[in-house]
Amino acid sequence: MAAKFKYLVIVESPAKSKTLEKYLGKDYKVLASMGHLRDLPKSRIAIDVENNFEPSYCIIKGKNKIVKELKTYAAKAEKVFLAPDPDREGEAIAWHLVQALDLPADKFERIEFNEITKNAVLGSFDRARGIDLNRVNAQQARRCLDRLVGYKISPLLWKRVRRGLSAGRVQSAAMHLICERETVIQQFKPQEYWNIDAQYLKGTRFTARVFNKVDKVADFIVPDAATAELIQSAVRENPSTVVNVNRRERRRNPYAPFITSTLQQDAAKKLGFNTRRTMMIAQQLYEGVELGAEGQVGLITYMRTDSTRIAEQALTESRGYIRDNFGAGFLPEAPNVYKQSKSAQDAHESIRPTSALREPQIVEQYLTADQQKLYTLIWRRFVACQMLPAVYDQTTIEIQAGDYLLKATGSIIKETGFLKVYEEATEEDAANKDAENVRLPELQSGDVLELLAVAGQQCFTQPPARYSEASLVKALEELGIGRPSTYAPIISTLQFRNYVQKQGRALVPTELGVIVDRQIQKHFPKIVDSGFTAGMELNLDEVEEGKQNWREMLGVFYTPFARELVDAEEKMEDMRVKDRPTDEVCDKCGKPMVIKSGRFGDFMACSGFPECKNTKSILKTLEDIVCPLCGAPVAERRSKKGRIFYGCSAYPECSFAAWDKPLKEFCPTCGAFMVERKDKASGEKIKLCIMCDIKNKETEKSGENNAENSDQ
Q1: What are the pLDDT digits (tens) for 164-180?
Q2: How far is residue 305's CA from residue 112's CA, in Å, rounded to a whole number?
Q3: Better-scored residue on pLDDT, 19 or 462
Q4: For 402-447, where are the E strands, in sequence order?
Q5: DSSP H helical ranges for 291-447
Q6: What confidence tens digit (pLDDT) does each residue in 633-655 have?
Q7: Of 55-59, 233-237, 597-601, which gets the smallest average pLDDT?
Q8: Which of 30, 222, 239, 674 sits a CA distance of 20 to 30 A from 351?
Q9: How far is CA 572 from CA 237, 521, 567, 569, in A?
Q10: Orientation angle between helical segments 14-24 and 118-126, nearest 10 degrees
Q11: Other C-beta atoms within 10 Å of 64: how many?
Q12: Sign of the four-CA dihedral 40, 46, 47, 48
């Protein structure tokens, strides 16, 4: 037992303990529960449907030692303060702590803080309260819903499709969005159209595009080459006269401070982080980083939120920072306030730095590269959200040539505003950026222009893009599917189950994912219906608000669901992939080997399973690509996490491996094969030699690092 203390504080993560003890002093002992201590057991459904959905909780395997330790400390304390995270899940952890530690009502209080700073932590004790049972019940309802869906549908998928599969209330709805989008893409029929651009000279060169006829036509397009040539001839043969000049001031407002979904989207677009990586780094910044003499400091507020609210103290500090560093010309008269979504839970505020005065360059030396990138993104977004809009002078010119109208648009930044600090990374902004700082000549109606050239470009309509992690998060948020805490684990689960594979940044459903989606859609249509899933989230919100009984809510869901289960048990088709025979025999027992379908594709296994568990991977060799080290064919392989890489087929005798896709081209210098890699700076695909361009650079970098270390 440590030195004497009066009060015990229990948090979720040990990373917070050191910081909190520094703030609280010697009378307080801070320990971590390491997340949940109790949960539904994995071995059974553990929900008594006949007894009003009574859940049966148990201590999580491996947590008995922690429970025993916490009980010992709790017995010595005058008061126990429960301080898990400030959300439903955190409230449920606090409630489970009370149950697991047998804490009497007068022995504990619940505290919560949105940021790990001294003021926030000390202030939380002034607001200490009891357990919010409405929040707990909302979490219990969600947990039971997910357990009922997962543990009832998954066994059917095991029997009719393949072992190891899973379904989920939010997971299956997200999967259906990806599959629906893929269906649209596969069925899409491109349509031809042409863009006709003319270059003019009037003091300076500028470009205008044909957009309609003088007698306006609804949904005007140039459908083919013949029409394009007719229009080009009309532009060449007729004078081009300015018929309208429209000048106006356009204001572009700053963006709201980050919430979980927008942080994940922007980190994906600007930093290339997937959702899991973003949340992991944000958790580190929230829980605290060692800042030299300052000690461990929480750098951002709680990162699981859908609220854009900002604390009054943070607003005052940020406005002072903007005034002192950019001048009053960048500061609005009153703080900017941002509209909340209807489903936002306003329990805690937006994601922001705990202090706007802690600039990214101040903390850079203490952070990892990833931490610095994400902190900078959050800091810039927050400071920018309290600045004035950017102001543009926008000019639109309409030109008539024969029977056709052309349009040119230019936009000049007049006042930088929030763009001094932060630029968003949306498709709309990218399109706007193309027109920004394009200066058009001063023209008046009636001006006749000198035509330099006119040309047509053949184009084809494009299908909607596949979902990326960022765009899927945006869709889930807009549809009301899931909550901020669920986005990252759902996307990870879809990839882990091999329902989805990433091609670049795109999420592409696998054949297995499509099969599972069709089965669930056919037999459990409500589970994949976005409206129904969003409605369940609203019901959970009402439970949290005390407007709905959680057990009654489960009953309304389960009655029709039980009927669907009975029907599916009888009617779900058998989609199992049968074992395929081979001519190869097992080198361990001599029985025939068969081809089986696994989570990461086909593999060979002994037909004597489970007595013989011998398996072999099936190598997919690449035509005409040989290993630069030994000359054996190069094969496509998968890592333990399912990521595709390329390695020598002679492994383990030869250890050559590369992440980049090999090409059927060879380096003129050394003869090794070329690979395709996306350039991080330009985003374009480039060709590199696997030996000259990649291996040598890695060797040089390693040598530089060794030199730096030796100098130290």
Answers
A1: 888 999 999 999 999 99
A2: 14
A3: 462
A4: 404-415
A5: 312-326, 360-363, 369-384, 427-435
A6: 888 877 766 677 888 888 878 88
A7: 597-601
A8: 30
A9: 67, 11, 8, 6
A10: 80
A11: 12
A12: negative
Beta-carbon contacts of 490 under 8 Å, excluding residues fewer than 6 positions away, are 168, 170, 171, 174, 476, 482
For the beta carbon of residue 327, count every other beta carbon within 10 angstroms.
9
First to last CA, the chain: 41
Go through the domains of the chain in sequence order and give each one's CATH number.
7-131 (3.40.50.140), 141-187+465-571 (1.10.460.10), 192-253+390-460 (2.70.20.10), 260-384 (1.10.290.10), 577-618 (no CATH), 620-712 (no CATH)
Q: Are 670 and 691 in contact (CB under 8 A)?
A: yes
Q: For residue 4, which phi and psi values (nearest 5 degrees)?
A: -60, 145
∠ CA 74-287-540, rounded to 5°: 80
- Return the bridge partners of 503, or none: 506
The answer to whether residue 646 is catalytic is no
Candidates 200, 286, 302, 499; catalytic one: 302
- 63-117 pLDDT tens trace: 999 999 999 999 999 999 999 988 899 999 999 999 999 999 999 999 999 888 8
What pLDDT score does 694 carry?
66
Residue 126, both tokens: 């002034």
* Whole-angstrom distance, CA of residue 616 vs CA of residue 595: 9
pLDDT in tens, 183-220: 999 999 999 999 999 999 988 899 999 999 999 999 99
Asked if residue 473 lies in contact with residue 275, where contact means CB atoms within 8 angstroms, the answer is yes
Average pLDDT estimate for 307-321: 93
Q: Which of 262, 258, 172, 171 is nearest to 474 (CA)?
A: 262
Interatomic CA distance for residues 621 and 634, integer angstroms: 6
Would the pTM count as exceeding 0.70?
A: yes
Phi, psi of 437 (to 5 degrees): 60, 25
Q: Where are the beta strands (DSSP E) in 233-359?
A: 240-252, 289-290, 296-297
